[in-house]
C-alpha cells in the first residue's frame, strides 16, 4: 500500500471524480451538438409552438408533447406532493423514532422498484379502472399522473423528513411554551422553518416526473395531441424520443435529439432551483 | 496445470478462428427477426463453417445497414421499398398478413376497406356506426417509421391517422392494449395472433394462411432480404436455403406465408 503513497491515492481518486464530471460534460456536448443545429434550422418558435408532429411529412412541432409533459408533471405534483408532505409531517412529528426507523427505509424502497413495474401495474390495474368508471381509453393523462405521483413519493417524503427534522427542537419548544397547540406549532413554525427543504423535495420530484419514460410510455397511450381532458391520451417529451429513436434517420433523428435538448434545459433549470433552495436551508442553520 | 489449461483454451480458440469461418450478419425487420434466427440456426447446424448473426432494429435499419455494409443482408417488410434501396438486390422470402384485431368482447366481425380507412382517419368514431355496440372506438396504431404501420397505410391507402390514436411501439404491446380494451381496434402481424384478441374479416375475407396465399385477403406485405450488389458465396447459399422447400417449411410452420 505504501508503494502508492498518499499522493498517488489522491491522484487516482481525483481521476475517478473527474471521469464522472467529464461523462456528464460529454453527454451534454453530444446532445447539444446533435440537437441544436436542427433547432436553429427549423426555428425555435416553429419547433416548440406548432402542434403537427408528422416526421414522414417533415413536420416537427413538439407543442403537444411539451403540453403533455407539463400536464403530466403538474398532475403528478397534485397527486404526490400533498401525500408526500403530509406523510413526512406525520412521520417526523407524530411517530416514535423507533417506528420511523422502519417506515422511512420502507418508503425509500419504493424508489428501488423499476419503473417498468409501475407501468405494468398502471396498464393492468389502473387503466381498466379508469376506462370502466370514468370512460375514455383508460391509457390516459390521469393514469400517468397517478402512477408518477406514487413514483415521486419517496423523493418528496425522504427529503421533507430530513428538512423537518433539521428544524431545531428549541423552535418547537418555544412555540408550545407560548401556548400554541401541536397543530399550530407544526404549520406555523416547523413547516415554515423547513419550507425551503420541502420546496426542494417537490422540485426534485418534478425532475423525476418529467424525466420518467418507461412508465409513461406504458400508461399514457402516446397519442400526439394536446389533451382536452384528463382522460385523453398524451405523449410526453421523453416518450416521444424513446418511441421513435429506433426508426429515426436524418432530420427525424435530429428532431429527436432537439427534443432531448429541450428536456435537458428544463431539467437543468429545475435542478438548479432545487439546489438553490436546499442551500438556503443549510445557510439558515 | 493452470498454464497448460490456458494454453489449451487459447489454442482451441485460435483453432476455431483458424478455420476461417464465414460470418454473415442480418439486420432489420423485427417481424422477420424470429424467423431469421430459426433459419440461421438450422443452416448453421448443417454448415459448420458459417456463423450467422441476426439483429433487429426495424425495416429502416435493414435498408440502411445493407447499404452501409454493416450487415450483409438487410431485412425489410415494406410494401414499397424506399428510393435508396434501388442499389440493393431484393429477394422476397416470405409474405406476412396484417391482421385487423379487436377485443373478443366486440361483436363486430367484418369491416369493409372503406370502413377501416374511416375508422383510422377518425371519421367513424363509434362502434354503432359499423354495426357494433354504442361505445367510442379506441384506435391503436404503431409509431411513425414502423414497417407494419407504413405497409398498413399503403395498402389501405389515403390514411391520415386520427390524432386521438393511441400509439404502441411493438406488435406485442398492440396485442396487450387490444386484449385489455373492449373498444379498441389495432393491427398486427398475422403470425402473432392469439386467443386474447380476434382477427376480423375485411371485405368479407378472413385473415387465414389460405386466403392470404390466394390473394383474396388484401392486407399482405412482402418480406424482403436486401443484399448490396449480387449475392455471392455463403450469402447466396443462405438465401437459397431460405427459399428451398426446407426453409419455406420452417417459415410456414411458424406462422408466416411462404414466398411461393
Q: Tell me, what's the shape of chain B?
A: elongated
CA-based gyration radius of chain B: 22 Å
N-to-C span of chain B: 58 Å
Main sheet characteristics of chain B? 10 strands, mixed
Helices and strands of chain A: which structural class?
mainly alpha
CATH fold call of the largest domain in chain A: MetI-like fold
Protein described:
The complex is a heterodimer of chains A (285) and B (260). Chain A has a two-stranded antiparallel ribbon. In chain A, a hairpin with a 4-residue loop joins strand 1 and strand 2. Chain A has helices at 5-42, 44-49, 63-93, 97-109, 115-133, 141-151, 153-165, 169-177, 182-193, 195-211, 214-220, 237-244, 250-284; strands at residues 53-54, 59-60. Chain A contains 13 helices and 2 strands. In chain A, 42% of the residues are buried. Chain A has 2 domains: 2-45; 62-284, MetI-like fold, CATH 1.10.3720.10. With 285 residues, chain A is mainly alpha-helical. Chain A is globular and about 70 Å long. The mean pLDDT of chain A is 90. Chain B has 260 residues and is α/β, with parallel strands linked by helices. In chain B, 37% of the residues lie in helices and 25% in strands. Chain B has helices spanning 2-18, 33-46, 59-68, 113-121, 147-156, 171-180, 209-214, 233-243, 245-253; strands spanning 22-28, 50-57, 73-76, 88-102, 110-111, 138-142, 166-168, 184-189, 198-199, 201-202, 220-228, 257-258. In chain B, strands 1, 2, 3, 4, 6, 7, 8, 9, 11 and 12 form a 10-stranded mixed β-sheet that branches. The radius of gyration of chain B is 22 Å and the shape is elongated. Chain B starts with a helix and ends with a strand. Mean pLDDT of chain B is 86; it is low at 13-18. Chain A binds chain B through residues 54-56, 123-124, 127-128, 131, 137-139, 217, 221-225, 232-233, 235, 243-244, 246-249, 252, and chain B through 57-58, 60-61, 64, 138, 143-146, 163-169, 176-177, 180-181, 183-184.
What is this entry, summarized?
The complex is a heterodimer of chains A (285) and B (260). Chain A is mainly alpha-helical. Chain A is 77% helix and 1% strand.
Amino acid at each position: 500500500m505504501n508503494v502508492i503513497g498518499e499522493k498517488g491515492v489522491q491522484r487516482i481518486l481525483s481521476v475517478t471524480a473527474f471521469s464522472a464530471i467529464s461523462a456528464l460534460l460529454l453527454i451534454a456536448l453530444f446532445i447539444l451538438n446533435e440537437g441544436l443545429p436542427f433547432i436553429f434550422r427549423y426555428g425555435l418558435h416553429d419547433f416548440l409552438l406548432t402542434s403537427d408532429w408528422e416526421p414522414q411529412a417533415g413536420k416537427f412541432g413538439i407543442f403537444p408533447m411539451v403540453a403533455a409533459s407539463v400536464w403530466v408533471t403538474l398532475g403528478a405534483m397534485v397527486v404526490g406532493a400533498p401525500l408526500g408532505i403530509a406523510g413526512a409531517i406525520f412521520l417526523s412529528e407524530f411517530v416514535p423514532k423507533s417506528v420511523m426507523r422502519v417506515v422511512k427505509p420502507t418508503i425509500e424502497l419504493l424508489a428501488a422498484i423499476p419503473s417498468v413495474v409501475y407501468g405494468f401495474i398502471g396498464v393492468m390495474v389502473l387503466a381498466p379502472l379508469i376506462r370502466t368508471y370514468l370512460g375514455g381509453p383508460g391509457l390516459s393523462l390521469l393514469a400517468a399522473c397517478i402512477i408518477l405521483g406514487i413514483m415521486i413519493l419517496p423523493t418528496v417524503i425522504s427529503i421533507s423528513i430530513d428538512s423537518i427534522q433539521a428544524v431545531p427542537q428549541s423552535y418547537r419548544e418555544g412555540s408550545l411554551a407560548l401556548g400554541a397547540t401541536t397543530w399550530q406549532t407544526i404549520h406555523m413554525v416547523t413547516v415554515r422553518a423547513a419550507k425551503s427543504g420541502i420546496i426542494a423535495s417537490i422540485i426534485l420530484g418534478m425532475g423525476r416526473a418529467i424525466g420518467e419514460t418507461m412508465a409513461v410510455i406504458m400508461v399514457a397511450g402516446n397519442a400526439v395531441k394536446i389533451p382536452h381532458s384528463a382522460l385523453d391520451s398524451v405523449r410526453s417529451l421523453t416518450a416521444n424520443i424513446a418511441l421513435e429513436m429506433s426508426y429515426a434517420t436524418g432530420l427525424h433523428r435530429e428532431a429527436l435529439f432537439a427534443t432531448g435538448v429541450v428536456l435537458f434545459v428544463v431539467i437543468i433549470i429545475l435542478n438548479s432551483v432545487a439546489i438553490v433552495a436546499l442551500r438556503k436551508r443549510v445557510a439558515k442553520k | 496445470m493452470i498454464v497448460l489449461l490456458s494454453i489449451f483454451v487459447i489454442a482451441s480458440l485460435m483453432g476455431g478462428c483458424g478455420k476461417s469461418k464465414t460470418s454473415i450478419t442480418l439486420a432489420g425487420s423485427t417481424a422477420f427477426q424470429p424467423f431469421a434466427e430459426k433459419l440461421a440456426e438450422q443452416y448453421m447446424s448443417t454448415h459448420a463453417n458459417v456463423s450467422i448473426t441476426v439483429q433487429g432494429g426495424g425495416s429502416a435499419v435493414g435498408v440502411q445497414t445493407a447499404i452501409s455494409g454493416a450487415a450483409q443482408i438487410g431485412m425489410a417488410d415494406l410494401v414499397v421499398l424506399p428510393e435508396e434501396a434501388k442499389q440493393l438486390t431484393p429477394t422476397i422470402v416470405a409474405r406476412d398478413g396484417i391482421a385487423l384485431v379487436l377485443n373478443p368482447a366486440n361483436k363486430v366481425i367484418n369491416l369493409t376497406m372503406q370502413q377501416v380507412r374511416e375508422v383510422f382517419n377518425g371519421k367513424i368514431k363509434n362502434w354503432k356506426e359499423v354495426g357494433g355496440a354504442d361505445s367510442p372506438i379506441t384506435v391503436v396504431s404503431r409509431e411513425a417509421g414502423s414497417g407494419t404501420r407504413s405497409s398498413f397505410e399503403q395498402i389501405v391507402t389515403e390514411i391520415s391517422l386520427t390524432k386521438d390514436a393511441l400509439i404502441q411501439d411493438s406488435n406485442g404491446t398492440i396485442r396487450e392494449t387490444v386484449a385489455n380494451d373492449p373498444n379498441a381496434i389495432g393491427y398486427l402481424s398475422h403470425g402473432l395472433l392469439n386467443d386474447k384478441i380476434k382477427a376480423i374479416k375485411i371485405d368479407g375475407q378472413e385473415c387465414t394462411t389460405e386466403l392470404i396465399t390466394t390473394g383474396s385477403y388484401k392486407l399482405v406485405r412482402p418480406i424482403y432480404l436486401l443484399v448490396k450488389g449480387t449475392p455471392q458465396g455463403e450469402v447466396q447459399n443462405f438465401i437459397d436455403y431460405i427459399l428451398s422447400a426446407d426453409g419455406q417449411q420452417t417459415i410456414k410452420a411458424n406462422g408466416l406465408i411462404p414466398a411461393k
